[in-house]
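User: I'm putting together a teaching handout on how multi-component assemblies are represented. Below are the sequence lines for each component of a complex, exactly as they appear in our records. Could you produce the 3D structure of the whole assembly as structure tokens, so the students can see both representations side by side? Please keep the chain order the same as the input.
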Amino acid sequence: MTLNTGAGLKRDRVRDFLLDFVADMKAGEAIPSERDLCKELGVSRPTLRAAIDDLVRSGVLVREHGRGTFTGPHRVTQALAATPSGSFYAPPAEGHWLSRILEFGSAPAGPQLARRLQLAPAALVLRVVRLRVVDDEPMAIERLHLPHVLVDGLVPDDMESGSFYRVLRERFGVDVRSAVQTIEATVTDETEAVLLSVPEHFPALMVERTTRDVNGGIVEFTRSIYRGDRYRVTSELHFDAASG
Amino acid sequence: MTLNTGAGLKRDRVRDFLLDFVADMKAGEAIPSERDLCKELGVSRPTLRAAIDDLVRSGVLVREHGRGTFTGPHRVTQALAATPSGSFYAPPAEGHWLSRILEFGSAPAGPQLARRLQLAPAALVLRVVRLRVVDDEPMAIERLHLPHVLVDGLVPDDMESGSFYRVLRERFGVDVRSAVQTIEATVTDETEAVLLSVPEHFPALMVERTTRDVNGGIVEFTRSIYRGDRYRVTSELHFDAASG
DNA sequence: CGGATAGAGTGGTCTTAACCAGTTGTGCCG
DNA sequence: CGGCACAACTGGTTAAGACCACTCTATCCG
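Assistant: Of course. Below is the structure of the complete assembly, with chains in the same order as your input.
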């Protein structure tokens, strides 16, 4: 029982260790006590607890005061799914999706993007604008921004079809782990209306997403506009006893 | 500068203090440094940071390494993920929330609602329409529907302030466990526009939520309209190795 | 005068060390 | 034999301090 070699935050290494540890267990089984795990792994209890907190938040583990910590009921956690596809990230099952690349090129990040991607303002950023089309009907405009160093050699073809995240993993060794996503209501402006074939000021969802890899590094910042009449977001929430 | 009297967790008292503190500030303004706040409030840095963590998760504050901690963009941000403290059901953190009850009464479910609530069409359903107001500004219209048998004796006052879900638990023994939520883009109709003090056809989010208790029984079905300029939804996604 | 640099201040991470609060099993006492 | 109390777990909260990484600014040197 030992941690991986010293890359990244200790808390994340502990979390990953626990993920492996839990992988072979049945649902509802108890893991060792926090104090035991601290001794085994050679970390302090706050660090260990921070790692467990992550896994509790994502539903992998469940704590019970005075009894112990147990593996969660359902093992795979997919917190948020978007119709019609099922997932924001998996290639949609329903309909025939295509992407039309409208823009593809690198430029210095500038102050705003630098902040979003946690890069130096002068660092190169790959900017891709693509129109997503389902069954010949325009569905969304995605504006992706990725640190150029991560994806040197990426070509427009890579983004025309299939899973972009698979390309990232297999060709560039970038392993997407988590994302924070913000959704808000908006209406289309003139350009967006034309691209999406809807009237100007048509209801739409603006989705901003920041994606991170296994080490917590930022992989992409994306701002997308989805047609309001064709797109909805579904999510499932879970609470523990303490929730007010 | 001092904390409230000693009820509840210190971390939560610090968080509430910061909420009050931040209430009078403009968007993007800096709060005092962590070390200064510790001295002022007489708490340790881990405790102070735990409180700030909550507010960062719910979008009230934004941290910038090496620069400081700042108030978030002036919007109400609601975390979709259920976090230990800033849950979906707690009144959102920023500003002073009130409810104005517009409608409150029971009637037979009818075919549509019966299906949503899994009741007989003749079963009584409590219907509540309330306008949610933040800092004197209308924010959302909520239309709640609950099986009447679950909440017999509920009065409008119960929904004017505080946590409705706490009332459910403490007074009616209903223990909320999970919810499925759907978000889509829309624009306000005439009635909604008047209530929300925005123009007709203004961008808005429609949120439908079905809530279940610990036994899987349906507790409520709610359809709400939120002002698009003041409301956003944030969620955190996690993937395991298999995600493509 | 301008650019490099050192220092002060910021948040970020981790450790050690208590003590509090539930749960459970065991053993004593009635 | 049965019930109650205590002891030994469990997770929950807070403290105090050290050190790292990043940002900004003011000063010094060319």
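A couple of points students might notice: The longest strand of chain B covers residues 97-108. Chain B has a mean pLDDT of 76.
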